[in-house]
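Q: Could you fold this chain for me?
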Amino acid sequence: MQNSAIRRTRRANRRILRARVTARAAAQRLAASCRRRPRSLATVAVASGVAKDTVTGVTNGLRSVAKRLGLTPAEQARTKRTVAGGRGHHTRAVAHWTLSQVRTLLAAYKPRKPEFIAAVALIAAFAGGAR
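A: Sure. Below is the predicted structure, expressed as structure tokens.
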């Protein structure tokens, strides 16, 4: 009786540890992908650790800064995915930005909301810029 309880708890612990390793590996792959090639602003924000409910507001602010600066993205892509999750029924045009362009946008972006300020700090640390 006691051995089966111990075995069950060890199995549960191993399952939890495997899930952590899988999540950490996925985060590392996403971060490496953002460093290698241009990605969308939302992808860079998610890879840097910004909360998903804050991502949309920060990326919209960065897009408006890009429009103000006249900065064009490194490349355009088409995707069916959405940041909020769920099925993407329509293809959307997505702008992909390099990390140096993201650093330029962050330097000109002055958010007021505290969560956006914290998100910008995370993105700046990820992109390699001091903020």
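A (continued): The longest strand covers residues 75-79.
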